[in-house]
Each structure stands twice: as structure tokens, then as C-alpha cells.
Specification:
The complex is a heterotrimer of chains A (about 300), B (about 375) and C (about 270). Chain A has about 300 residues and is mostly helical. Chain A folds into 2 domains: about 80 residues, no CATH class; about 190 residues, MetI-like (MetI-like fold), CATH 1.10.3720. In chain A, about 70% of the residues lie in helices and about 0% in strands. Chain A contains 14 helices and 2 strands; from the N terminus they run ααββαααααααααααα. A two-stranded antiparallel ribbon of chain A has the order 1-2. In chain A, a hairpin with a 3-residue loop joins strand 1 and strand 2. In chain A, helix 9 crosses helix 11. Chain A starts with a helix and ends with a helix. Chain B is an alpha/beta fold and about 375 residues long. In chain B, helix 1 packs across helix 2 and helix 9 runs parallel beside helix 16. In chain B, the strands form 2 sheets. In chain B, strands 4, 5, 6, 7, 8, 9 and 10 form a 7-stranded mixed sheet that branches. A 3-stranded parallel sheet of chain B has the order 2-1-3. Chain C is an all-alpha fold and about 270 residues long. Chain C has one domain: MetI-like fold, CATH 1.10.3720.10. Chain C contains 11 helices and no strands. The longest helix of chain C is centred in the last third of the chain and has 34 residues. The chains are: A mainly alpha (about 300), B alpha/beta (about 375), C mainly alpha (about 270). The interface between A and C is large, with 116 and 109 residues.
Chain lengths: ~300, ~375, ~270
């Protein structure tokens, strides 16, 4: 396949070369984005890295002592008896996994329907996003109303007591609902993007050749949808690890995740060095996950 | 800049105001100042006040009255906690003219040199009308940077129609929390940790590891029975019935009692008495407007408006408040607790180290 | 075809899930009373209140403008990135890849604080009186959103196949013409999707905006957060309802316009998307 050749062949020089492999876009195209990243991301982040090796002085001043104290403090906690931070990291991981899986489960059939069967695809897709232009805080607070046992609908249907007993509001369940709701478009859009360019006749062909719908799905649809699933999962999982606002609003602010921890250090404690160290740990863990993703995507590029 | 005529006694000069607002806007745009010299002078004391504050902490009538009297427009922005304010200032945000931190935060900000000293010559009403004991407080001993905005207590409130008991101590509060499981608290580690500390007979400000460990145990024991931890709407939850008790502030407690059958109590073991201040942060673009505001709200009539809105104690001499909107609150024991109650309470004097210890307990509390 | 009908039914449920809280917001925007849980008669007064509150209208306007600007910039940067990266030499591509991914990986609170300090220091260095404002919000948003666009566009670009481009070259079209007439139309759904995501993220963003905003550049989420004392005020519900109406109208109009241009393209016999 032409694409494979273009990827695996080492090409020298820039500019496009008509002919085998198609156009190759000039490297300088990346410059604006890279410059932006370096100036407005790497430099600020450098500050965080430097601060993670510092020590807090007084209420919130930072002394750049270039020590590993913060990391040692975290390590001691993780392996120690108290392991407060370890529990928080585990809870964060759990939330991220559940959130990702729930958006995948809820979002995939929806994306599939729009991609394959819907007549007004773009419109339906836009309708998925439109609720998210009414501001995330408003939506979170709206859920507070919908989940409230006193919600007029429940009262009218006599379901108030039942809902009350479920104890959803201000519990972890409310957080999961809020998370699934808020991160849904992040999953649906990449899924759609991948499913949209699928050749559905392949699926029909597979079924004509005797595959059950489920088998056809597994053998034809799923592999081709995989990049979308991965992209969507990443777009959901990663920000979720830093999420702390939904737990504040919908969870009653009584659960703690990595994002809450970092926010607490920077806002309440004024201990920026420790906050920076925690942030570096989270970033480190996620970078590893991403490198794995890039690996898989790289393989995808070669055989796509 | 000294005003022999206090600001609201000067006739409001419309031309000066327009010129001043324009000049201020242009100055902000970096285009230099235009306009006549007196418009320049007017621009310094007029223009716009940028007031960064808690939400719903100022009577809306006061804004209008202030603008009417001084010609200064008020731009408002809101923060949800002292810590947010501090984080912004520490990060270097500039342009806020007036902020209202609580005492312990004022101490931190002074220690970090983030506040502007006040010009007392612009604050004649403060000198004239303030209750003397609020002119110098432990948070700002020389009164260089701060003027008291209001003060209050930390205790607990409960729905009298949902709870048949009538608790008066922290011990009962804790027991009832475990019994009903419908308690909210302010999202503030000093207040919660400190209150429980007094319950155990320790100082609100204790920094003893041993004592704090005891507090920690009580808190972890309590956690499963807590509904929510919100500084800004823990009282709303009680009003709605989603919670029946709350650890919080007297002003909220009184407001709650106005909406539903409820009572606010200062616990017998003790608690906190806190003070909120007016401060001008470094980098303020219009400190004169900030001075004008402080001076304005120290008029008895305006101070009465404020107290009647927020239900927090006024720093003015009580005799001056008679006949104002706050007149009938003067005898309210929630807004103006009697001396015997106040004696039991402590102010937040926690050091940086004590704060860290409390944060750690709080983290564990929230994560459990 | 029961699969199709089942899925259709599911889609309806999914949309109910998506719109339930929104409908609640809209319904209570018309609630005469203050308390959100008690219906006190139909009224439009909160709309008037919202429109008369300068903090709300300014914040809304600012949020929209920043989001638009950020979408445009993010699409530009992100698309260029997505186009050039796949064919770059690995030793060059990997670090840039890692950089782009890192912008997605960093917890927002961390980036927000870091950006705040950076802008203030840079502002001091440049002698700016008030370094923070809508510009810093936009800049910070683009950092994240360029990567989002790049991710979406790249996923599409990489799996698109190059046969049409090759054909175009064989027929004598230069690289720019090929890009404009062949690649870009095929890529445009992904760019559009990325742009929409970028707009949405920026408009909805709270944490980053909160920290890097200046005193005079409050966005709508920041304003709402500051009003948390009583939860969502009816005026805010009214604002949300108005925004919803506005965006729905905009979406339908955009869709109709898109459809017409698609039909136009079909009629002119251009390669299908």
C-alpha cells in the first residue's frame, strides 16, 4: 500500500514530491504550533517542575532548594501505613476507568447509529454538542435538581421516597452520572469520526457470507472503529484524572481525587512545591499511558 | 487628596465623572491621560472601583447608594473562598482595588507583603464611628492595612422542626450527626478541626500532634454521616431539607431561621470568633476609590443597611446603629452575641505549621 | 432491520439523557419564583433581569468571543500539526508528539497556575500594567485545544488514504491545488469536529480561565462560580436558556448552509467526501 511505503521509506528533503506516496506536507507547518507549545506550555511547566524540587516557606513562599523532599514525602506515604495519597490515587484511577467505560458504553451505540443509519448526521452530531454550550457549571447544578428526591417530576409520580432511599445525591453515584454526562461528547465525536468513514457494505458482505451480526461487528466494525475508541478513551480518561469540580458540586465535596489534592495544595495550603510534585507524578503516569497509545497509533499509521 | 469635605458631601460633578471615567479607561488602555487638570484630579478619586469580594456579601442598595453619592461606579468580581483570593494575589493578579479577606488570611497576606497601607486621612468615618476595640486587632496590630468589615462566630445551626433535640454543645452536635446522618459543614479545615478541638477541651488553635490526632479520630468517625462540605451553600441544603444540621456561621444561621424553623447555637465548649476586613491589595488601580468605599460604609445608615442584609456583626459603635435598618438586630444574640459567649470563643491564630497539620487531617477526612 | 430500530430507540434515550438537565434549566428559567425546586408560575422576568445585568451579558459576550477566536487559532495550528507530523522523520516527530500529548495530559489546575505565574512574570518583564485579560485566556485555551484538533484531524487524515491525492497529482494538479480541492474537503468534517470541540472546551472552561483571567475579563463560568452562594440563580438559568436558543438556531442555520454547499458540490461533480 502506498501509505506504508511513504511511512517506512526514509525521505530526505522537504516539500511535496508528486508521485509515489502522495504529497508530504512541509515540516515547517508544525512551527507555529510548536512555538506556541514551547512558549505557553513548556516554559510554565518548567516552573512547575522546578517548584516540585522546592520547599514551602511560611504560608506560601517557595524556596528553590532543589531537594527531593516532596517526592520522598509522597513515596513514604504510598508505601507507608497511612497511605492517604495512595488511596487518593487509587480512587482517581477508579473514577477515570469507570468514567471512560461508561462514556464508551453510552456513547458507542449512539455514535454508531448516527454514523450508519441516521439521515441528518451532521445535525444529530451537533445536537450532541449543543447542550455543552450552556456552561458546565449550569449543567452540574441542573443535575442537582434532577437527582433531588424533591424534583417535581418525582413528587408528581410519588417516587420521592424511592429516590431518597437510593441516596444518589451527594454520593459517588451522582459523581459517576455527572462524569458520564459531561464527558460524553468527548467520546462520541472521535467515535463518530472513525465510524463515519466506514464502508458499511463490508459489514453487509460479511453477513451475506454467513457471519452473525455480532460476529460481523467484531470482525469488521470493531477493528476499524478502534482508533476512534482509543482517541475517545484518551480524551475522556486523561482530563478525568484531574477532575475535581464535579465531585465538589455533585458529590457534596466529600470525596478526594488527585485533582482535588492538587487544587488543595495550590489553593488552600499554599504548598506549591508539594502540589507541583503531586502534579508531576500524575503527569508522569499519564505520559506513560500516552506513550503506549502513541505506539498503537503508530502501528495504525503504518497499516492504515 | 485629603478631603476636608467628605466625599459624599462634595457635589457630584457630572462632567468630572465622565471625564474621570474616560481618563481612567484611557489610562488603563495605556494611551495616557487626556482632559483638563481637574479632571485628572477627579479621575484619581472617581472612575471605577474594582471590588473583589464574596458573592452576596454587600447589600445591593449599598452599591447604588455609593455610586449616587460619589459618582464612582463599582465593578464586581467574586471569589468563593479566602484561599482562592490568596491564590490569585500570590499568582500576581493585579487591578483589584478592594478585597475582603478573613483575619487569618489577612495575617498571611501581610506577612507576604501583598497589601497596601491605608491612608487614614481618607477614612475619617472609620476613626469617628468605629467601635474602639475594632480599631486594632490581633490580625493587624497596628491597623496599617486593614479596616474591619464585620465579624461573626462559628457554631452550628439545626432545623428545629426536623430534630427534636435541642443541642447546645459540640458533643451533642457530633452525636446527632451520627444519629441522623444529615449534617453539612463549611468546607474549611481551620473551622471544623478547631471546633472539634474545643469539643475535646483543647484550644481552637492547638498544634499539638497528640491533640490533633484525637481530633482526627473524631472526624474520621464522623465522615460517613456527613452530607456535604460547602462553604457557600451548606445553609441552602438545610433550608431545602437535604440536611438538618450544619457547622457554620452566625449570619447564615440567622438567615436560615428566617426561611425555615431553625436555630443557631454557639457551642458551650467554644468555637471561633472571626473578623473580615477591608484590604487594598498591591497593584490596585484605584486605591482612592477603595478608600472612598470604606469611608462610605462606615456611615451609620449604610452600616445599618449592611448588617441588616448580611446578619453579621457591625464594627461600628452600637449606639450609632440605633434607628438604622439594623436597629432591631442590636438585641439579637446571634448577630451580637453577649460578652459571656464571646469570651468562650477564640480567634484563628494558627501558624503556617499548624495549618499544614490541619490540611493533612482535612485531606484524610475528605478522602475517607 | 430490528437492529436499526433498536439502535434508533436507544439514540432517542441517549438524547433524553443529554437534554434532561437542559430542559430542567430551561423550564426553571420561566419559573416566577426564586427557588428552583418550587414552581411559582410562568414568568419571563428572569430573562429581563439577566439581560439587564451587565456582569452576565458582558461575561457571556466575552466567553463567546474568546471561544470563537480560540477555535480558529486551534484549528489552524492543530490542522497544520496533523498534516505535517505523520510524514516527519521519527526523531523529529516523537518529541513533538510527546509535547502535544503533554498538553492533554497535564491536569488543568496545574497548567492554570503555571500559566498564571508565567503571564504575570512575562507581563512584568514587558512592562505591562495588567498582564492578565481575555488575551491570556485565549492563549491558554489554545494550548490545549490545538492538540485536540490535531488529535481529531490526525485520526482522520491517517486513515484517509492517499489515493485521491495521488490521482490528483497524476492529473497534473500542483500540491496547493490538490490540497485545496482534494485533501481539504475530505478533511473538513474532522476539522469542523475539532473546531467545535475547541469552541466547546473554551466556552465551557472554568479552571484555566479562572486563574489566568484579569479583573476585567470574567467569562461566564467564572461569573457563575462566584454566584455559587445560592446555587444557580434564576437569572443564570435564563441566560442558559437564551444561549441554548441561540445555539440551536445557529446550529440549524449552519446545518442548512452546509447541506446546500454539499448539494452544490455534488452537482458540480466533485469527489465525494
Amino acid at each position: 500500500m502506498a501509505s506504508t511505503e511513504a511511512d517506512t521509506t526514509e525521505r530526505r528533503g522537504e516539500g511535496t514530491r508528486p508521485g509515489a506516496g502522495g504529497p508530504r506536507y512541509p515540516g515547517w507547518l508544525v512551527l507555529p504550533a510548536v512555538a506556541w507549545y514551547v512558549l505557553f506550555f513548556l516554559v510554565p511547566l518548567g516552573f512547575i517542575v522546578a517548584t516540585s524540587f522546592g520547599t514551602v516557606v511560611g504560608f506560601s513562599d517557595i524556596a528553590y532548594t532543589w531537594s527531593l523532599d516532596n517526592y520522598r514525602y509522597l513515596w513514604d506515604d504510598v508505601v507507608g501505613d497511612l497511605h492517604i495519597y495512595r488511596d487518593i490515587f487509587v480512587a482517581t484511577f477508579k473514577l477515570s476507568i469507570i468514567g471512560t467505560l461508561s462514556t464508551l458504553v453510552i456513547g458507542f451505540p449512539l455514535a454508531y447509529y448516527i454514523a450508519r443509519y441516521a439521515k441528518h448526521k451532521t445535525l444529530l452530531l451537533l445536537l450532541v454538542i449543543v447542550p455543552f454550550w450552556t456552561s458546565f457549571l449550569i449543567r452540574a447544578y441542573a443535575w442537582l435538581i434532577v437527582l433531588d428526591p424533591e424534583f417535581p417530576l418525582f413528587r408528581a409520580l410519588g417516587l420521592s421516597d424511592f429516590v431518597e432511599r437510593q441516596g444518589i445525591l451527594f454520593s459517588e453515584k451522582a459523581i459517576y452520572i455527572g462524569v458520564a454526562y459531561n464527558y460524553l461528547p468527548l467520546m462520541v465525536l472521535p467515535l463518530y469520526a472513525a465510524l463515519e468513514r466506514m464502508d458499511w457494505s463490508l459489514v453487509d458482505a460479511a453477513q451475506d457470507l454467513g457471519d452473525s451480526p455480532l460476529r460481523a461487528f467484531r470482525r469488521v466494525t470493531l477493528p476499524l472503529a478502534l482508533p476512534g475508541i482509543l482517541a475517545g478513551s484518551l480524551l475522556v480518561f486523561i482530563p478525568l484524572t484531574g477532575e475535581y469540580i464535579i465531585p465538589v458540586i455533585l458529590g457534596g465535596n466529600k470525596t478526594f481525587y488527585a485533582g482535588s489534592l492538587i487544587a488543595q495544595q495550590f489553593l488552600e495550603s499554599g504548598d506549591w512545591p508539594l502540589g507541583s510534585a503531586i502534579a508531576m507524578v500524575v503527569i508522569g503516569a499519564l505520559t506513560i499511558a500516552l506513550l503506549i497509545y502513541a505506539r498503537v497509533l503508530g502501528k495504525q499509521e503504518q497499516f492504515g | 487628596m485629603s478631603d476636608e469635605l467628605t466625599i459624599w458631601e462634595r457635589p457630584v460633578n457630572r462632567r468630572g465623572f465622565v471625564a474621570g471615567a474616560t481618563a481612567a479607561a484611557l489610562a488603563a488602555a495605556g494611551l495616557g491621560r487626556f482632559g483638563a487638570a481637574d479632571a485628572l484630579a477627579a479621575a484619581e478619586a472617581e472612575g471605577t472601583l474594582f471590588y473583589y469580594n464574596w458573592a452576596q456579601y454587600v447589600n445591593p442598595k449599598t452599591y447604588a447608594a455609593f455610586t449616587k453619592a460619589t459618582g464612582i461606579k463599582v465593578k464586581k468580581a467574586f471569589y468563593d473562598s479566602n484561599e482562592t483570593l490568596a491564590a490569585k494575589l500570590r499568582g500576581g493578579a493585579r487591578g483589584y482595588d478592594l478585597v475582603c479577606p478573613t483575619g487569618y488570611m489577612v495575617k498571611e497576606l501581610i506577612a507576604e507583603d501583598r497589601l497596601l497601607p491605608l491612608d487614614r486621612s481618607q477614612l475619617r468615618n472609620v476613626t469617628k464611628n468605629a467601635d474602639p476595640k475594632f480599631l486594632r486587632t490581633a490580625d493587624d496590630p497596628k491597623g496599617t492595612y486593614s479596616v474591619v468589615k464585620d465579624w461573626g462566630t462559628t457554631g452550628f445551626m439545626y432545623r428545629t422542626d426536623k430534630i427534636k433535640e435541642r443541642p447546645t454543645t459540640w458533643r451533642e452536635f457530633v452525636a446527632l450527626t451520627k444519629k441522623y446522618g444529615k449534617t453539612t459543614m463549611v468546607d474549611s479545615s481551620p473551622e471544623v478541626v478547631g471546633s472539634i478541638a474545643t469539643m475535646l477541651g483543647y484550644s481552637y488553635n492547638t498544634e499539638s500532634q497528640r491533640e490533633l490526632d484525637q481530633v482526627r479520630k473524631v472526624l474520621l468517625d464522623l465522615k460517613p454521616h456527613v452530607v456535604a462540605l460547602h462553604s457557600s451553600n451548606y445553609d441552602t441544603l438545610i433550608a431545602k431539607g437535604q440536611a438538618w444540621m450544619g457547622l457554620g456561621w452566625n449570619g447564615d444561621g440567622l438567615a436560615l431561621a428566617g426561611r425555615v424553623p431553625a436555630r443557631y447555637v454557639v457551642a458551650k465548649e467554644g468555637g471561633e470568633i472571626w473578623i473580615d476586613y477591608y484590604n487594598i491589595p498591591k497593584g490596585a488601580s484605584n486605591p482612592d476609590a477603595a478608600h472612598a468605599w470604606i469611608n462610605f460604609v462606615y456611615q451609620p445608615r449604610i452600616a445599618g443597611l449592611e448588617t441588616s442584609y448580611s446578619y453579621y456583626g457591625s464594627p461600628l459603635r452600637r449606639s450609632l446603629l440605633k434607628g438604622t435598618a439594623a436597629g432591631k438586630l442590636l438585641t439579637d444574640r446571634v448577630v451580637f452575641p453577649p460578652a459571656a459567649t464571646v469570651k468562650k470563643l477564640e480567634t484563628n491564630q494558627v501558624s503556617a505549621n499548624g495549618k499544614r497539620l490541619r490540611e493533612r487531617i482535612w485531606t484524610e477526612f475528605k478522602a475517607s | 432491520m430490528t437492529g436499526r430500530r433498536l439502535l434508533g430507540g436507544y439514540a432517542v434515550l441517549a438524547y433524553v439523557f443529554l437534554y434532561a438537565p437542559i430542559l430542567v434549566v430551561v423550564a426553571f428559567a420561566f419559573n416566577g419564583g426564586r427557588d428552583v425546586l418550587f414552581w411559582e408560575g410562568f414568568s419571563t422576568r428572569w430573562f429581563e433581569v439577566a439581560l439587564r445585568t451587565p456582569e452576565i451579558t458582558e461575561a457571556l459576550r466575552r466567553s463567546v468571543l474568546i471561544a470563537l477566536g480560540n477555535a480558529v487559532v486551534a484549528c489552524l495550528l492543530g490542522t497544520m500539526l496533523a498534516l505535517a507530523l505523520p510524514r516527519m522523520r521519527p526523531w523529529l516527530r516523537t518529541p513533538i508528539d510527546a509535547l502535544a500529548y503533554m498538553t492533554l495530559v497535564t491536569p488543568e489546575i496545574v497548567f492554570a497556575i503555571a500559566a498564571l505565574v508565567f503571564f504575570v512574570q512575562a507581563g512584568n518583564g514587558l512592562g505591562l500594567e495588567n498582564p492578565l485579560g481575555w488575551q491570556t485566556i485565549l492563549i491558554a485555551h489554545v494550548v490545549f485545544n490545538a492538540s485536540v484538533v490535531a488529535l481529531v484531524v490526525r485520526a482522520r487524515f491517517v486513515s484517509m488514504g492517499q489515493s485521491l491525492e495521488e490521482a490528483s497529482f497524476d492529473l497534473g494538479a500542483g500540491p496547493l491545488a490538490t490540497f485545496r480541492q482534494v485533501t481539504l474537503p475530505r478533511l473538513s468534517p474532522a476539522i469542523l469536529a475539532g473546531g467545535l470541540l475547541a469552541f466547546t472546551f473554551s466556552f465551557d472552561d472554568f479552571i484555566t480561565s479562572f486563574f489566568v483571567t484579569g479583573p476585567t475579563s470574567e467569562t461566564l463560568p467564572i461569573y457563575i462560580w462566584g454566584q455559587l452562594r445560592f446555587g444557580v440563580t434564576p437569572a443564570i438559568n435564563a441566560t442558559a436558556a437564551m444561549m441554548l436558543a441561540f445555539t440551536l438556531v445557529g446550529v440549524v442555520v449552519a446545518y442548512l448552509v452546509l447541506r446546500r454547499s454539499e448539494q452544490g458540490r455534488e452537482r458540480r461533480g466533485l469527489p465525494g467526501v
